[in-house]
């Protein structure tokens, strides 16, 4: 058996097209343009690439993009003053600060300063708590993207056994909450889990978010399972000297022979993250203005 390959790039393209349609409708019917503000502290080259990509995709769907580049030695007080300004700016519906930030700044305090209604990364205690207690929330973008791919692949997930490897606040915990809401029986595995392979072999849905290249072997996968590979490890390219390539947490060549459906790396989960950031910005805009939320773009 060879698994269906879940094409996250095509799915993300479709989401962006839908978002662009919704943005045009908001403009026509309500004179509103959703706006996303991204704050970049310092000049980390990887962050520069992410921020440029976010800004480009934001503009492409018809939203306003506000980029705020501030020096690496900015004080917490000055950064908070900027966030406060964005919190009260009616043209801004989503705010994110690109992490990591320099050591003198505390990521948790930065997230806590952002208005939860504009916290499109879904990282605040308020949004995490709302998700955990079944209230409308803004959900962290990568788990939201995985949920969309799973819904599209499986339809109902009710009663399925799901295993999430990794328990970070950014991904593992919200992913587990989302699967629980879909009525899965959820196991959260982590670095202290005993006999991880045995847990994985029971999973109808296996989600790996660790950051250890190819740690999930083919014989850890239940036949027919849906495998979502979130992990990204950059390694030297075997055929192109000086170049690198991305490897997932799952040994794709082995797992594709056993699974029912699987996301590749790259081209699986990765493209969904920015698409879901735009979806969250649209959702935040609709909620802030008391309008109906776009269907299928929220958890
Ligand atoms: P993280 O905060 O480093 O968390 C990693 C998790 O993996 C931790 O919960 C850790 O357990 C667990 N772990 C480590 N070694 C393990 C092992 N041997 N067996 C089982 N579990 C183990 O990472 P993250 O932010 O969640 O990201 C995870 C991966 O997803 C990374 O590769 C990251 O680059 C990728 N990612 C991709 C996207 C995307 O857009 N595609 C977005 C977010 C993250 P403990 O809690 O016990 O330490």
Walk me through this protein's architecture.
The chain is an alpha/beta fold and 299 residues long. The chain has 2 domains: 30-115, Leucine Dehydrogenase, chain A, domain 1 (Rossmann fold, 3-Layer(aba) Sandwich); 141-271, NAD(P)-binding Rossmann-like Domain (Rossmann fold, 3-Layer(aba) Sandwich), CATH 3.40.50.720. It is 40% helix and 16% strand. A 6-stranded parallel beta sheet has the order 1-11-8-7-5-6. The chain has a 3-stranded parallel beta sheet with strand order 3-2-4, with helices on both faces. The longest helix is centred in the N-terminal third of the chain and has 23 residues, at 8-30. The chain is globular, with a radius of gyration of 19 Å. The model has no long low-confidence stretch (mean pLDDT 97).
Please sum up the structure shown.
The protein has 299 residues and is of the alpha/beta class.
Task: Please describe the structure with a list of short key phrases separated by commas or semicolons.
10 helices; binds NADP nicotinamide-adenine-dinucleotide phosphate; alpha/beta; 299 residues; 40% helix; 2 domains; Rossmann fold; 3-stranded parallel β-sheet; 6-stranded parallel β-sheet
């Amino acid at each position: 058996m060879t698994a269906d390959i879940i094409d996250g790039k095509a799915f993300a393209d479709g989401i962006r097209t839908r978002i662009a349609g919704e943005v045009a409708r908001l403009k026509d019917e309500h004179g509103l343009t959703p706006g996303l503000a991204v704050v970049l502290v310092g000049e980390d080259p990887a962050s520069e690439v992410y921020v440029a990509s976010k800004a480009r995709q934001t503009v492409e769907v018809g939203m306003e993009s506000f980029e705020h580049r501030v020096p690496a030695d900015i004080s917490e007080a000055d950064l908070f003053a900027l966030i406060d300004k964005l919190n009260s700016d009616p043209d801004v519906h989503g705010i994110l600060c690109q992490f990591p930030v320099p050591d003198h700044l505390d990521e948790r305090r930065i997230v806590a300063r952002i208005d939860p209604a504009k916290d499109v990364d879904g990282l605040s205690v308020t949004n995490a708590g709302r998700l955990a207690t079944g209230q409308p929330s803004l959900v962290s973008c990568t788990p939201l993207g995985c949920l969309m791919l799973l819904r599209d692949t499986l339809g109902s997930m009710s009663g399925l056994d799901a295993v999430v490897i990794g328990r970070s606040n950014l991904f593992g915990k919200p992913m587990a909450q989302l699967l629980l809401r879909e009525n899965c029986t959820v196991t959260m595995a982590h670095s202290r889990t005993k006999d991880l392979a045995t847990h994985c072999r029971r999973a109808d849905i296996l989600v790996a978010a660790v950051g250890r290249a190819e740690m999930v072997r083919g014989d850890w996968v239940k036949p027919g399972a849906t495998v979502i590979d979130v992990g990204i490890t950059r390694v030297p390219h075997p055929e192109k000297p000086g170049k690198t390539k991305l490897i997932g947490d799952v040994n794709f060549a082995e797992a594709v022979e056993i699974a029912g459906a699987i996301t590749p790396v790259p081209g699986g989960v990765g493209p969904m993250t920015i698409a879901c950031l735009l979806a969250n910005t649209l959702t935040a805009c609709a909620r802030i203005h008391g309008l109906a939320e776009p269907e299928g773009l929220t958890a």
